[in-house]
Amino acid sequence: MDATDAIIANYEKHHLDALVCLGGGGTQKNALYLKEKGLNVITLPKTIDNDVAMTDVTFGFDTAMGIATEAIDRLHSTAHSHHRIVVVEIMGHRAGWLTLGAGIAGGADVILIPEIPYDVDNIAKAIRSRSRSGKRFSIAADLKAAEKKKEKAKSKSEKQTAKATIAAWEGRHAGNTLRLSRKLEQLTRLESRVTILGYVQRGGTPSAVDRLLATRLGTACADLLNEGVHGVMVAARGEGTEPVPLEKVAGKRKLVPFDHPWIESARLVGTTLGD
Q: Fold identical between 3-58+205-248 and 62-204+257-268?
């Protein structure tokens, strides 16, 4: 029995009226599956990656962005005093929201996100230009290479094929930040170091913004349940909320648009995006 089967069994065993699911893209897909199996389901968008479709923002994002921003702030003194390039690896699950937001807020000189393909030569050129102007250090915010999730396989041969595919993908993407750091060191002749924030971004005390957002979505969820509304995600919309059918959310990812105001702001303050 897998996890979803266990959920269905418990739902029926305890005669539940509805099930509230909190999470990111995977949660939204599983919730749709449960809805199709006849369960009354409603979801809330919760992930540090901010990549859930059809909502302005997810709770958890602001807290993680604050943690990553503080880390970049702390790295400035080391980068400056040792005349180094510091590449900071930030999470994001194949979407650039967290890296972009923390990079801008923390004053990173280079921000690299998957929505904008980069050329390492362009990055090195910008860093050398900073060096010539007397700024002999640079902070680069880089998105962590996303881990490929293992897919369910029905047969032994399918499992072996999936395992081999995953291993090959991980081989190509593992250590991408380290390779970038080494390449920049070669091209700029400046020492380059890597800082991997890892799961520290996922913990800590929630920010006031996230607490308010979670409360707003949670109370809206309670109202919808009281009205008998199911099969939706409670999306943040402006200062309010909006129920969105799970079919419009599941299987979709919200990426950073090329013309997003954050992108424009980053360019206007002289941040290099690598393109």
A: yes
Selecting among 5, 49, 56, 259, the annotated active-site residue is 49
Domain 62-204+257-268: homologous superfamily in CATH: Phosphofructokinase domain (3.40.50.460)
pLDDT at 192 over 60: yes
Mean pLDDT for the stretch of residues 145-149? 44
**pTM score, whole prediction:** 0.85
> What is the β-pairing status of strands 84-90 and 232-237?
unpaired
Helices and strands, number each (H, E), in the chain = 9, 8
The residue to which tokens 């962005």 are assigned: 65
Please tell me the class of the 3-58+205-248 domain.
alpha beta
| pLDDT attached to residue 228 | 95
Mean pLDDT lowest among 28-32, 120-124, 170-174, 232-236:
170-174
Residue 5 annotated to the active site: no
- The domain locations on the chain are 3-58+205-248, 62-204+257-268
